[in-house]
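(Structure overview)
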Amino acid sequence: MQWYQILLGVITIVVSLSITVLVVLQESKSQGLSGVIAGGAENLFGKSRGRSFEDKLVKYTKWATGAFFVLTLGTTLLILFWNR
């Protein structure tokens, strides 16, 4: 294996672990039976979604997922075309 393959593999593992942590830290959209009964009505009646910690987690998860996609695609193309 080349040094860049090892480096890209380590970076991919770190990004995938960070996605896992970010997803686990997020609250679920409906909190058990009360979410089923309310049907998401708590969003209609006053729970405003500003710049909360939850919103930041969602934003970071989107960025990490995009980085994972680009990193995986780039690594695959690099390995395919570099070894020719």
Remarks:
- The CA atoms of residues 16 and 68 lie 7 Å apart.
- The radius of gyration is 19 Å.
- Residues 3-82 form one domain.
- The mean pLDDT is 81.
